[in-house]
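Sequence, please.
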């Protein structure tokens, strides 16, 4: 990869090609519970490299406004959240969620100066536990994406968020790399210790899957396939969806309702969102035994199977008020993720790290804040990574050079897809044969 391409893919600040691409879409910004009460404390939020202040007004609306007051630059984090607006405590200037300055008490009563002052603020909407914001150029934002797990009723969905200390794309690329599962997460699990006929058995019996990769209306898809029984193959089908979503293949195709979002905090930090329907992640039958493609089989929460993660490892530290103070893990790079070398040495764990998520976190952060892709040596197992980078580069350049909108901005329906694993007759084109299973209900 050329250095210029690596820079284009990695940099997301205002005015960069990738940052401008992401600003065409609605972006998950906060969990609704982070702003749980009207007139509650303002919250520092960094998003696409911008320092912003979030607050919930008296009437329950969410505001997301620039950090610096338009008067003399004082931080609105110290502001008073009251009366359907946020008031700078320096001179009393007050802003509505629309960004309009609505009160300027240090100016004469007859002055219309406040009518000329507008801060930078971004519209927000809430859906199924997520506060979305639109940071783009349109007066009227596009529709929200039809992401199935974010369209469920209260009690049917789960939202989890974790800060990852590395560039958004190197974090995301772990989710579209199917071959690492048999090593990083299941490296010491021997076939004879796995349940015959299960997804995990097929993975550890053949750790070098073949790949079919295609462009799609929403981004890219892959089918990673390997032998199952004598006349069948096990397919892991997963997706990248513009501009920063993935759907992983750990569950059962047609059943799993799951999406991840890899939201750039800035160039060197990523907020990883998981939005799922827990009922869809339960173990299911494939050949009469538990299909070990879900979280339980990978040791999240403490599996007893040899060679998988050792349990725990997802503790979130109490939030702090700094720009990077939200959703940080207790196990982090400052303490080497509390790696257990004895568990690694004994074979109780391949990595000595406590969970699947922590293994992914440690490895992608170990590459540094922004990995220099010009030093890579990619093989056939990296076909999905290569194709996805190409799609992102092409879309960012087309927007920059020709004003062509990237996929999905105005068509929320293209996000109605599912991912997962499935066993098919040998020789079948898995991506083609499972088109109906890949569709989420309209």
């Amino acid at each position: 990869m050329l250095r210029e391409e690596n820079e284009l893919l990695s940099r997301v600040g205002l005015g960069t090609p990738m940052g401008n691409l992401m600003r065409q879409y609605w972006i998950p910004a906060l969990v609704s519970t982070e702003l749980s009460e009207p007139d509650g404390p303002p919250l520092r939020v960094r998003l696409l490299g911008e320092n912003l202040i979030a607050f919930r007004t008296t009437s329950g609306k969410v505001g997301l406004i620039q950090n610096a007051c338009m008067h003399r630059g004082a931080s609105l984090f110290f502001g008073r959240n009251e009366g359907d607006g946020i008031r700078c405590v320096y001179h009393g200037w007050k802003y509505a969620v629309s960004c309009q300055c609505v009160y300027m008490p240090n100016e004469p009563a007859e002055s219309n100066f406040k009518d000329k002052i507008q801060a930078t603020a971004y519209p927000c909407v809430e859906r199924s536990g997520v506060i979305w914001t639109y940071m783009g150029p349109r007066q009227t934002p596009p529709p929200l994406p039809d992401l199935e797990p974010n369209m469920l009723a209260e009690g049917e969905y789960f939202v989890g968020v974790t800060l990852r200390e590395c560039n958004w794309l190197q974090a995301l690329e772990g989710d579209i790399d199917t071959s690492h599962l048999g090593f990083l997460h299941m490296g010491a699990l021997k076939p004879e210790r796995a349940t015959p006929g299960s997804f995990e058995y097929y993975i550890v019996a053949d750790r070098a899957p073949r790949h079919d990769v295609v462009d799609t209306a929403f981004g890219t898809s892959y089918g990673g396939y390997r032998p199952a029984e004598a006349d069948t193959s096990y397919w892991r089908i997963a997706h990248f969806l513009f501009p920063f979503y993935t759907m992983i293949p750990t569950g059962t195709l047609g059943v799993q309702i799951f999406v991840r979002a890899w939201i750039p905090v800035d160039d060197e930090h990523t907020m990883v969102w998981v939005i799922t329907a827990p009922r869809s992640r339960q173990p299911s039958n494939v050949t009469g035994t538990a299909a070990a493609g879900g979280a339980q089989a990978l040791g999240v929460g403490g599996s007893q199977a040899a060679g998988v993660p050792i349990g725990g490892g997802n503790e979130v530290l109490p939030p702090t008020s700094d720009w990077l103070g939200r959703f940080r893990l207790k196990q982090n790079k400052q303490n080497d993720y509390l790696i257990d070398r004895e568990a690694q040495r004994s074979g109780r764990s391949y990595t000595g790290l406590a969970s699947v998520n922590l293994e992914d976190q440690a490895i992608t952060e170990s590459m540094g804040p922004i990995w220099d892709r010009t030093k890579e040596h990619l093989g056939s197992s990296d076909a999905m990574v290569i194709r996805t980078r190409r799609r992102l580069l092409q879309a960012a350049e087309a927007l920059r050079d020709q004003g062509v909108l990237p996929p999905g901005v105005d068509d929320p329906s293209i996000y109605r897809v599912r991912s997962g694993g499935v066993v098919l007759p040998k020789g079948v084109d898995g991506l083609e044969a499972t088109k109906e299973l890949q569709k989420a209900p309209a």
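Residues 28-141 form a domain with the Rieske Iron-sulfur Protein fold (CATH 2.102.10.10).
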